[in-house]
Structures are given as C-alpha cells and as structure tokens.
Amino acid sequence: MFYEALDKYGDLIALGFKRQDKWEHISYSQYYLLARRAAKGFLKLGLKQAHSVAILGFNSPEWFFSAVGTVFAGGIVTGIYTTSSPEACQYIAYDCCANVIMVDTQKQLEKILKIWKQLPHLKAVVIYKEPPPNKMANVYTMEEFMELGNEVPEEALDAIIDTQQPNQCCVLVYTSGTTGNPKGVMLSQDNITWTARYGSQAGDIRPAEVQQEVVVSYLPLSHIAAQIYDLWTGIQWGAQVCFAEPDALKGSLVNTLREVEPTSHMGEDHGAHPGGGGSVWLHPAKDAAVGHVGDLGAEPHLPRQRPEALHNQTGRLPGASQGSPGTGICQVSKELLWSGPHDGRDTALLPGSQHPLVCGLRPQ
User: What is the C-alpha to C-alpha distance for residues 322 and 354, in angstroms, rounded to an integer?
Assistant: First the structure.
C-alpha cells in the first residue's frame, strides 16, 4: 500500500505539523524514508518478528513513521493511551511483548521507568518530543535512535519486507471501556489495507488524483477509529494529515481547524447509546453553505470542500444545533451530506430535520 502511495503521491504533502508556531510539512517520499530509518533503528535495538513496538504519545509525525517502520521491520504496532497509569502501561506492554516503547514526553518516560523491571521483553525506550532528564542506559532520543538505523543495511530491511504475508498480524488495538483488563485485538495486514481502501468509502474519502483530502489528526491513535482514518487511510488515498496540539480536546482544536481547513473530518460520540457510541465522517453537500463550528457563529464564510470543521468534540455539526445533552441528536439548519459508516450511504440532512451523531442510531 505504501509503495503504491509512493509511486502516485511521492511529491505531495503527507504530514503537517507545527513547530514553534509555524507549520512544517513532510512529503510522502520523505515519510517513506523516515519510516525505513525507523524500521532499521528497531532492528538494531533488537525488535523480533511478531513482537511489538508500543507507542505512548500524542498524535505526531513520529507516531506515524514509527508505526509504519514497525510494520516494515516485521513487528506489531501497539498504541497505549496517553492517559494510562503506569500499571495499565505495564499490562499492555507485557501482554504485547514490547521490545521497544516510544514515548513523547518525560512524563510518559517516568511511567515506563517505574515498570521496566516487570517487562522482560523490553530492550529500549525512545523519547521523541523532549530530551530525557539525564543520560540513561537503553533510553534514546529520536535523533540517536534514527542514527542507529544507519548501521543496518538496506538489503536486510528489504529481505524482511519481502517475507511478510497478508495474514500476518501488524497491529494490536487494546479495547477501552470493557470490564476487566484491556483485550488485545489483532489486525492483519490485509485487514488494514482492505479497511483503508473500502471502509473509507463510508466517508466519501477521495484519492489525491481527484482532490487531496486534508485531515486533522486529534483523536487517540491507540483507538482503531483514529488509527484507520488518520494513519492507514491517509496512506491509501494520499491524504494530507495535519496534527492537532496535545491540548486539542481542551479547546485548541478549533484553532487548528481554522488554520488547516480540513476537507474531511471524523468525530465520535461515546455516550449516545448503550453500545458506547460510534464515528461519523462528514462532507459538506455540493451546494451546502458551511458555517462555523460550535458557538463560533453560523454564517458561511469558507469555500465549498474547505469547511473550517465538520464535527467537533462537543457533538455539533456546522449548520446544526445540539439537541438534548447526551442524546447525540442534532437539529439541522443548513443542508449537509452525512455519510454513515454503518451503511456507507450518503444521506442529505435537510433543514429542519433531526439526525443522530452516531452510526447505528435512527433519527428521532
């Protein structure tokens, strides 16, 4: 899948991120090379086939190319929620046989240092947003880690890639919100590639040959919805994925949406029904006026297909007002097009109508 993306979209922007208040970008060609360097770094650190690289950090380019590099190296990508306690991290890292753990900050590093002795498979930790407080054995900065990969021949990595099989597990997603300990769900390579290709039809995601989609990555990548939509579907169709700030759900997401102007956006509602909610992908209808998100106002001001936001964490749609709190029902005041993931069909949301914000619910 990545090879095809490289051939078709190599020069296009793949990832957008903010450094010191300025947006920077990585092309698909650069993305691929960074993933290969990460893969060789993992091999140098002793990643064994069918063992995991656990990633404990907020959405970022490092999360992405570490994940792709893990798959290239024959390992299994395992995301850990950033809100996890040291004990929860220990359970998942032990259960997935993590050889390497990637962390973004000193706060996350401290969690792993507390539990390292209970992780017999763990060989190294890489910290990629902040430097470690002091020099520690087997703890590497991102720069040191990427340099390690220079010692592994390209041919050695190519040989590992060539031996991989479609039914080989490449991602573990641990459940949240279930009773007892989290359960690891295995996703094979053909599961990921099929879902990225066909599941995205529910959201009317278009290939970059038609129009490059712009997506904001803000939901936890340790959850299957965000990982499929942001990471793997992005590669499949050559989307430009821009990363929100770590405090996105505390209010900064709106600023990111203003700056990026996504063409496609996914939101989730976890409390609307006993099943725990679901996801919606949204696009403006062809001639629909698209307004602001939330309480920013309702006057349309952006070009079609460049909505400032299509759904936000408060459960509102542009041109729609929230109904009863917690019901997941919205009142539509401007025509919108909703693609429901449960059936993949486009539904026009007409002015004056009410609609659910989660797949599987019926309009009330």
Answer: 10
Pairing of strands 98-103, 124-127: parallel
pTM of the model: 0.76
Q: Are 356 and 328 in contact (CB under 8 A)?
A: yes
DSSP state at residue 101: E
Let me know: does 171 contact 187? Beta carbons within 8 Å.
yes
Amino acid at 66: S
Nearest of 221, 244, 250 to residue 233 by alpha carbon = 221
Annotate 148-185 with b (16+ C-beta within 10 A) or e (fewer). bbeebeeeebeebeeeeeeebbbbbbbeeeeeeebebe
Among 188, 194, 195, 196, CA closest to 172: 188
Q: What is the dihedral of CA 43, 45, 48, 49, to 10 degrees?
A: -30
* Closest by Cα among 260, 253, 351, 249 to 298: 351
Give the span between the Cα atoms of 206 and 195, in whole angstroms.
15
> Contact, 278 vs 266, CB < 8 A?
no
Q: Which amino acid is at 248?
A: A
Find the helix packing angle between 28-45 and 154-162, rounded to 10°. 90
Domain boundaries, the chain: 28-156+163-213
Q: Where are the alpha helices (DSSP H) in 230-300?
A: 233-237, 253-260
Give me the pLDDT at residue 141, please: 97
Token output for 27: 């092309």
| Helices 2-9 and 28-45, packing angle to 10 deg | 150
CA–CA dist 138, 125 (Å, integer): 6
Tokens at 157, concatenated: 């990595």
Multiple choice CATH, 28-156+163-213, 3.10.105.10, 3.40.50.720, 3.40.50.980, 3.20.20.70: 3.40.50.980
pLDDT, averaged in runs of 10, over the chain (364 residues): 93 95 96 98 96 98 98 97 95 97 98 98 97 94 96 96 95 85 94 90 83 95 93 95 94 93 76 41 36 27 31 34 33 39 43 37 27
